[in-house]
Design a protein that fits this description.
Elements: H1 5-8, H2 12-23, E1 33-37, H3 43-51, E2 56-61, H4 64-70, E3 78-82, H5 85-91, E4 95-101, H6 110-118, E5 121-132, H7 138-147, H8 152-155, H9 168-177, E6 180-194, H10 197-205, H11 210-215, H12 218-235, E7 241-254
Parallel strand pairs: 1-2, 1-4, 2-3, 4-5
Antiparallel strand pairs: 5-7, 6-7
Helix pairs in contact: 6-9, 7-12, 10-12
Length: 255
């Protein structure tokens, strides 16, 4: 997907908040071998590295656009490589800490994905993950509704992006069933107060809209955006806009 770091970083502080909650859940030990799955621009991976002063950290991401930013954060402890999460799994390498902040929601079949990622851990290793769970909010539902309407439905060949994110009970069961201990799984609302619906559109255009706009021809892309903006303005008629964003955080240790 054509990620745009500038658009994504418009709400940097808001997007960074869950990362700090994840950081607090890490079992910090000396000499950890760490991988950050879906590291984006690398800015938070650098903060992760600073939090683990004797660790060796690898950040991987499939987006060349995002990784252009990452080179400024590289250190003797921290390296970056362009690789998808699926490709990294196939490498068969093991880590003491597998970390992923807001990336796994782009991958399908979490019922099999999470157990597969668990196999990347060394004995005693820790899995620390955050995924957005805001798929039922109007901002996301309206995208799917629009995509099912003509002329967009035909242009997309009926495609609708599936919602792979599970509920917290399902994640807890997966972690336990595959040998997890010290399990913590919870959903948290991160409240964001945005100036207006234009700001709300900017937020969504940095993530959830991307796969749809990528697939639509240029003319329909413009129409899709205009119709989506109209829908936002109709649904959120007061300013500022309160945007409660739900996220799931999960942590477990595997022996």
């Amino acid at each position: 997907m054509p990620w745009n770091p500038e658009v994504y970083n418009k709400f940097k502080q808001e997007r960074f908040a869950p990362f700090y909650d994840l950081l607090a859940l890490i079992n910090v030990r000396p000499g950890l071998n760490v991988i950050d799955l879906g590291c984006g621009t690398g800015e938070l991976t650098r903060q992760l590295t600073d939090h683990l002063p004797t660790a060796q950290v690898l950040g991987i991401d499939a987006s060349s656009e995002m990784l252009k930013e990452a080179k400024t954060f590289k250190t003797n402890q921290l390296n970056f490589e362009q690789r998808s999460i699926e490709q990294q799994i196939k490498e068969g390498l093991k880590y003491d800490l597998v970390f992923s902040n807001a990336a796994l929601q782009w991958l399908e079949n979490h019922e099999t994905l999470i157990p597969t990622i668990i196999t990347m851990l060394q004995p005693g290793g820790q899995l620390v993950v955050q995924v957005p769970s805001n798929q039922d909010h109007f901002t996301h539902r309206f995208i799917r509704t629009l995509a099912q309407q003509e002329p967009y439905c035909s242009a997309l060949n009926g495609w609708i992006r599936s919602v792979p994110v599970l509920n917290i009970e399902s994640y807890a069961n997966l972690l336990f069933d595959h040998g997890g201990s010290e399990i913590i799984v919870f959903e948290k609302v991160y409240p964001h107060i945005l100036k207006d619906t234009a700001a709300l559109f900017d937020w969504v255009s940095g993530t959830a809209l991307i796969p749809y706009l990528e697939k639509l021809p240029e003319k329909l892309k413009t129409d899709f955006i205009a119709t989506y903006k109209t829908g936002l303005a109709h649904n959120f008629q007061e300013a500022p806009v309160f945007y409660p964003f739900k996220r799931i955080l999960m942590v477990a240790t595997f022996n």
